Every structure is written in structure tokens, then in C-alpha cells.
Amino acid sequence: MKILQLLLIIGFSFDVSLSSSKWILELGDNFIDVRKDGGYWLVKFYTPWSGQCKRLEPVWAHVVQALKNTHIRVGKVDCSIFPNVGKAFEIITYPTIKLIKAEEEFTFEGEKTTEEIINFAIRLSGPPVQQVTRSESLSNIKNMNQLFFMYVGELEGLLWNTFYDVASKFQAHAFYYSASEEIAMKHVDIHTLPAVFVHKETSHYFYSVGEGNNQIEADHINATMHKWINEERFETFPKITEANINEILRTQKYIVLVVVEENKVFQIPKEMLEFRNTVEALARKKRHVYHDYFQFGWTNSRELANNIAMQIVPLPYLIVLNSSTLHHHVPEDEPMQMTPDAIEMFLKNIIEETVPIYGGNDIAVRIYRTYFKARTTLADRWSGNPVLTTVLLGLPLGFLSFILYSCCCANILDADDDEEEELPHEKKE
Ligand SMILES: *[C@@H]1O[C@H](CO)[C@@H](O)[C@H](O)[C@H]1NC(C)=O
Ligand SMILES: *[C@@H]1O[C@H](CO)[C@@H](O)[C@H](O)[C@H]1NC(C)=O
User: Fold this and answer.
1) Which atom of ligand 2 lies closest to the CA of 253?
2) In the chain, where are the structural domains located?
3) What spacing in Å lies between the alpha carbon of 290 and ligand 2's midpoint?
4) Over the stretch 146-165, which tens digit does the pLDDT of each residue have?
5) Domain named Thioredoxin: which ranges (predicted)?
6) How far is the CA of 220 from the centre of ligand 1 (A)?
7) pLDDT tens, 221-267?
8) Which residues line ligand 1 (CB under 6 A)?
9) Window from 45-59, 60-74, 86-100, 361-375 with minimum mean pLDDT
């Protein structure tokens, strides 16, 4: 099993003396004290009635199973019974997953899948940089198809110290390893030492200090390595969700988002898949051209795109989001009609800032976005349970829209008149 293999590679200590039943620990008020005993705890804070918590249950069962017999202890706290524990850990939303060490705690912010949660726990429960001492281990790590960063060379000096610092800071986000020249050379061509590279999918890319800086200062290395690792910690074409988009926005690049439909068994209609593949191929083939400006990705969440575009978007859809201003750009042509050349032209125009700009993050747009979200949510619920919706949302929302309408510039609302007609089609029967 993949996870077990990873644990073995990075030399986890297995504590087999504990029986498995101890691993599905229901924690209570005493946990506030128990944590002081040290060790690593992966804890889920939940309430029994939340739908999101219920959805997490099967995933959590896998997490418990996978981390059984490792030195990470897994527990859960029912915050409806033990509100004090929730308060002590400053839990605001349920479920919240935290990795807790004696004094430190880290909140899980990724997509709540078994793999992501386990990776999060494993990363944080070891040293920031794991040393790889055997060539086979490096082969195994590479075969795991996970993104990782690696330092090659003597474990001393400015580059090493900086790498270690950044790894400590971004420990929750990626795997960091170090290896000797001898081991690394068997896998990667390295021209100068020490070196730092990232392994993504099947390629690797080196960190470089940058030119025109003969005098290599600590500050410069620190700043460029922070920036580089922050930008490189995502795959070339990751799946983007509501959970990870905020992290991805921190790259400070343009986010190129392909929106497609995906059913429950992860099938994407053929034409949409073709369009997605076209953009993905472009991102890979022209990495050297676009990598500095764009982080590509795709999503199956139409809602995410709707909320960015503030309209119900047709699928497939291509939208480019400016991560610093939250403005967005969309091509004039229908995505499926676009050739790779047309897509490139669109991207080039974005870099040159010659395309129309929409949205943004100023107060009027924020208010409108809130209004849009509330309205689409309402439309959704209306189709589910009209009576309840009216009772629960009718009054406050009517009031809210009234306020928004009065304080929001009229043109933003006017501009969207035609969308009103689209809404009924969007209702799920
Ligand atoms: C290194 O750079 C990061 C981000 O640019 C900054 O937050 C941090 O304080 C810097 N560290 C040092 C030691 O200068
Ligand atoms: C976002 O917009 C600002 C202002 O127009 C621009 O300076 C910046 O280059 C754009 N791109 C990114 C990735 O922030």
C-alpha cells in the first residue's frame, strides 16, 4: 500500500504495542490535558448533525485505518458534547481537522480526501526535511507520483539553511527531502552543487538564484526561494476546488481555470474532456513560456466558476483569474471552438493587459458577489423545498436584497438582467 510504503521510506517508527481499537479514540474534555503528554495527534472536531461531518465519515474511517500502528494517534471530538474542547482549540467550523503536537497545532486546509489528509498528517509529524539515504528510496518516492522538493549537497551553508527554513514554514503543503550528491545523481542530472529541485509528475525543475546577482546575499536567496517554493508546490494542471483555490491564489499568478462537468463516477463528457486536454497539453508543452505568469488547472465545480464570474456559466468554460486583484478574463469565443493558437493568443493578450477586465474585489463587486451567491443558493433550495426555503430565507434575503439594491451601484445589477432568464434552466428539476 502506497501510504505504508511512504511511511517505511521516511523511517517512521511503528508502535505495534497498541491495539487497533485505541486508534478510534473518542476524545473528551481530558484531551486538553492529554495533548500535553506530547506525541502527534490527528484530531477531527465534529458535530453529529452537520451534513459535511457526515460526508467526512467514510474518508475518516480510511484515515484511521491507514494511520493505525503509526506513531500518529487519531482521535475525534464531538463538539456538541464537549464544547469546551472546541473552544480551547478555537474551532469555528465543523468538521475541522487538526494535527496537534505538544505546543503546536496545524489546521488542515486542503480538500478532504483520504490521501490529502494522510499526507498532511505524515508531513507534519516528521522533521521538515526528510533525509533520503538509499537510492532505492528515492526511486520509490519518485514512483509515488507525488510532488516533492529536494535539496542535494552537504547539509550546511546558506542554501541548506534557507531550504530548511522554507520547508519548516510550508511543511503542511509538500514533502521535502535531502539527499547526497551520490544518491541524487543516479536519478537527476545535476550541474552545480548544492542544488534544489522540485519533482512534478515525471519532470524536475531546478531552483536558481537568478542572474545579475553576483553577490549572493542571504536575503536574496531567502526571498527567491520562498517565492519559488510557493509557486512550485502545485502540480502543472491540478484539480482546483473551493478548498484549495485560496492556497493556489497565493502563487500571485493568473489562475487559468478550465471548468467542466463531471458526474459521480468521475466521467467527463467527451467534448469537454477534449477541451480540458487541449489546455492541459498547452500548459505542459509551453511551460517555459507561461509558467512565470500562469497557474493552470481545472475544476468540476461550476459553482466555483459561477461565483467568480458572477453568472451561471456555460460549460465547458475558460476563465482566467488575476490572483492579486481578483479580476477575471474570459475569451470572446466559445471555448470548444478555440484552437490551441486561439487560446495562446488569449493568454498573450492577458499578459499584455489588452483583454477586457471583469469582476474584481472592490466593495461593490463584493456585495454583488454575496448577493449572487445568496440568490443562486436560494434558487437551489427553492427547487428542493419551497416552503422551508421561504420560511428560512425568504424574509432575511428579501431584506438583504433591498439593502444591497439601494447601496450597490445600479449598473452592476443592470448589467446582469439577462441572467435572470437563465436561472430557471439551471434549477435542478
Ligand atoms: C524570508 O522571506 C520570507 C518571505 O519573503 C519572510 O517572511 C521571512 O521573514 C524571511 N526570513 C528571513 C530570515 O529574512
Ligand atoms: C493583475 O492585475 C494587476 C493590475 O492590473 C496587474 O498589475 C497584474 O500584473 C495582474 N496579474 C497578476 C498575476 O497579478
Assistant:
1) 13
2) 2-124, 130-232, 245-365, 385-429
3) 15
4) 899 999 999 999 999 999 99
5) 7-126
6) 10
7) 999 999 999 999 999 999 998 888 988 999 999 999 999 999 888 89
8) 219, 222-223, 226
9) 361-375
More confident residue, 417 or 178: 178
The backbone region for 360, taken as left when phi is positive above 0, alpha when psi lies in -120 to 50, beta otherwise, is left
Domain 130-232 matches domain 245-365 at the CATH topology level: yes
Domain 130-232 has CATH 3.40.50.200: no
Closest approach atom of ligand 2 to CA 254: 13
Centre of ligand 2 to C-alpha 253, Å, is: 8
Residue nearest to atom 11 of ligand 2 (CA): 322
Q: Which ligand is nearest to the CA of 165?
A: 1
Q: How many residues does the chain have?
A: 429
CATH 3.30.300.10 given to domain 245-365? no
**Nearest-CA neighbor of 291 among 237, 345, 346, 220?**
237
Q: For domain 2-124, give the CATH number.
A: 3.40.30.10
Nearest ligand, CA of residue 250? 2
Instruction: Calculate how far, in angstroms, residue 353's C-alpha sits from the geometric centre of ligand 2.
Output: 8
Q: Please, what's the b/e burial string for 322-358 (b: 16 or more CB within 10 A of its CB; e: otherwise)?
A: bbeebbbbbbeeebeebeeeebeebbeebeeeebeeb
